[in-house]
Design goal:
homodimer; 231 residues; Nucleoside Triphosphate Pyrophosphohydrolase; Arc Repressor Mutant, subunit A; 2 domains; two-stranded antiparallel sheet; 5 helices; 27% strand; elongated; DNA-binding
Chain lengths: 231, 231
DNA sequence: GCAAAAGTGTTTGGATTACACCCATGC
DNA sequence: GCATGGGTGTAATCCAAACACTTTTGC
């Protein structure tokens, strides 16, 4: 029935690659680590790790995220799986890629046992990476962009309180096109935002109003009316 | 560094589940097989198989498709991976789900070594399935619906020559809502279709014109202008 | 002629676009 | 006062929904 023994199928390992995306200085950035071990020693890579035999995929992704950032309860999104037989030099390792959005300012990502250096790199300037990580990165960034269009995940990257221009610039960077300010503001009218009395400070022009995303209102809208976030 | 030996990670297997979708009698249907072996003997299940240690994931998906239908060169779409440690009773098996569209009339799907019965089941009437296949099926159907909105994959399910009403009914069934005929025809104006002189036959009403999807024109449009299929 | 579905035109209101203009702040 | 972005209004246009109507076939 099979050309090998049944038990010979149970000789593979799994890893989870966990992409972190954040937003700062008008750019969407991905967290990369510099590997401090073979193979691909000293190459930039996507944070990832092997999955324990008794661990669920989501669990492993959360563990890696926790190790790297100290954060838990971050919304994780599964992207794609990659399984070329030769993709890992030390054996058959199929990897499942995940991604999550974080606020870069909220924490200090720390080097962990597998890395001695980390860096936030703009998604439009990704260098050559270890393994097949360039393929994984490119595929995942495409998925991120798709989700930016239909889910309010941008607010997980923006600061808790943000200006409408910051919001706009995020989309301008993601889709690499400039948008008309007035039209952008009309387009987002449907999104439940909370306007604060607080204003921007220390800017040498008219200070902008600060907003936050009204998550609860959003959830209610989704459940009650047939609301679909759209950008 | 790890709480188990490095070699103990290489004790897992992975499988590929390969959902086939087709369209007949106004319904989108999925191909299910009745298992003819333990575990879950006699349960309906998604066709799938273990992946050989030297086989890529896409390759395995193509192999299963070929075994089942005799078809190759079918557009396969990767959906999601499922890895709960207890999802398979015989060991750690992570599964990657794929789906593909086929023309049900074009071939006779045949029972294979793992199944003695197969059936095309409307996606709105899926029974209880083996393993965690209900979860996999539901997730994949959602993805199918998403792709129906932004990629011309419906034409892989429709007959080579179809009427505009058949086309419309496919979307009506998928999204479970009726659509206005006149408006539907305006909405699809942007899709490159080829009108044939041929007409529907053997119908007791005005025969409808037959169309096919102009795949080459579509590709050109995507490459030259910034065209995006949208439904 | 009648039933049934194919196929088309018109009106309306809401969204999208381009563009112009005013406002508040630091220096 | 001026530079810099914040913030808003308007008119033209496109698009989608609702609905009515004509056409072609079998019986």
């Amino acid at each position: 029935m099979y050309r090998i023994n049944f038990s010979d199928f149970f000789t593979s390992a799994f890893s989870v690659d966990c992409m972190l995306f954040g937003y700062s200085q008008g750019q969407i950035k991905a967290l990369l680590i510099k590997r401090a071990m073979e193979p691909y020693n000293n190459f930039w890579a996507i944070p990832g790790d092997l999955v324990y035999p008794d661990e669920d995929l989501d669990e492993a992704a959360n563990r890696i995220l926790k190790d790297l950032t100290g954060l838990s309860d971050v919304g994780l999104h599964q992207a794609q799986s990659f399984g070329h037989p030769k993709r890992h030099p030390q054996g058959r390792v199929v990897t499942v890629s995940y991604f999550a959005m974080v606020r870069i300012e909220d924490f200090n990502a720390k080097a962990s046992s597998w890395a001695d250096e980390i860096s936030w790199v703009p998604i439009h300037d990704i260098p050559v990476l270890a393994f097949d990580h360039n393929l994984i990165m490119a595929t995942t960034i495409e998925l991120l962009k798709q989700k930016l269009r239909v889910e309010p995940i941008c607010f997980d990257m923006l600061p808790d309180r943000f200006t409408l221009s910051e919001f706009q610039q995020l989309y301008e960077y993601a889709f690499n096109q400039s948008l008309d300010k007035a039209n952008f503001r009309k387009k987002i009218k449907h999104i439940p935002l909370l306007a604060h009395d607080e204003k921007q400070k220390m800017v040498k022009h008219r200070p902008a109003k600060l907003f936050s995303f009204a998550k609860e209102d959003y959830k209610t809208k989704v459940e009650t009316i047939d609301y679909q976030f759209k950008m």
